[in-house]
Automatic annotation (TrEMBL):
The keyword Magnesium does not apply. Keywords: Cell inner membrane, Cell membrane, Membrane, Transmembrane, Transmembrane helix, Transport. Pfam families: BPD_transp_1. This is Putative spermidine/putrescine transport system permease protein. It is found in: Cell inner membrane; Cell membrane. Gene3D superfamilies: MetI-like (1.10.3720.10).
Amino acid sequence: MKKKSAGSIAVMLLVMIYLLIPLVISIIYSLFKKWTGILPEGFSIGNYASLFSDPNFLASVGRSVGMCIVPILLTIVIVLLALFVTTIYFPKLEKYVQIICMIPYTIQGVILSVSILSLYVGNKSVLSNRMVMLMGAYCIVILPYIYQGIRNGMRAVNMVTLIEAAEMLGASKIYAFFRVVVPNIISAIIVSSLLAVGIIFGDYVLIRNLAGTSAPNMQIFLYQTMKSDSTKASAVFVIIMFVTFVITAVVLFLKSREGKNRVQKK
């Protein structure tokens, strides 16, 4: 058993090293002014200093985070309500809901953005707003990941049985769903949300086509920086990864703290 565990740890370490190589190289590259030979020249943290003093970059970070929060929360609420209705009241319709939620897997970003523009640009309602179109497009893109994670979580806890047990104690279906089922599938919701964060943070096509340069996120800023300074672009990439890690760490910390509170209450 010890040999197997040591082998597993060694394999995991090799995989981690392999995955972290691009990030480590980007960090090293961003800390030098130029790298035209075998060794870099001019060690400096000027790239990071200039980025954190640039209001445009800070605004792009804020936009990226905001563009993650709104579509993810909206999609989670819609999927939760849809699965509640179909599972409890119309179980025969669940397969059709699943098909609809899986369709975005096959839609390319360019096709989606062009279709949205052609449909809503001439509209005089709020739907013609570029940011509204972008948020709606992100909801569509992340829908399969949110749906699949929540659906698997509901099946794991046997949602119907939990709701029936809560009804026997006098609770309504909707109350039992949000007070009993949702807290028990919070892990599935968190995992799905983290997948969605990675997808939105890595997007360039949708925001470029729908919002243009009027509301640039970190990916747009990275693309514009690559045209002028490659070392500074590496610093932008490192910060993007750092922000992603921070969001993931905060979410996992809140999840672990909630789990500890539950154990203490029991």
